[in-house]
Structure prediction request, 183 residues.
Amino acid sequence: MNRRFFLTGLAALAVTPGMAFAQETPSEDAIIRRLDAAPSRRVRPEERVTIREFKRHRELRDRAPSIDIQSINFEFGSSQIPRSEFRKVRVIANALQRITRRRRGARFLIEGHTDAVGSAGSNQILSEDRAESLKWALVEEFGIPERALETVGYGEEYLLVRTEREEWRNRRVTLRRIDEFLR
Prediction:
């Protein structure tokens, strides 16, 4: 009997290798703890930048409170969030709603990332589209104010695992709270 379960599991892993290791969505409280934290280094008023400048400067982004979300599963080459993934998006939305109630001017950057499979150009576009897709799901389905969300795609530029192969840990969305960095 155990052999049958083992073989079934092994077959499932062979069919869906990336899905077998996908993470659970962080809890609402975990998202809040990470995004509601203080920046790693305070930003003086004269250091504040525009959203465009913020998106271009990794050292600023790295100072912002953030959390990686690796659990939203997109179809290969698609930016559409399947309806089956909306319960995960709801957890993110609930956390953002709680933060925006406490911090009236809270703003968040949704960063899209891909793995290195495919061309850099197509991965760049795909990462931008996936970040936009999450933004519109949060706005239209869950009522997050549009003004609180910005998006950017980084394609395969910031891989967590350096490889040219499919790697689920690289296909992610990063959320950052950025209000303390903007003019």
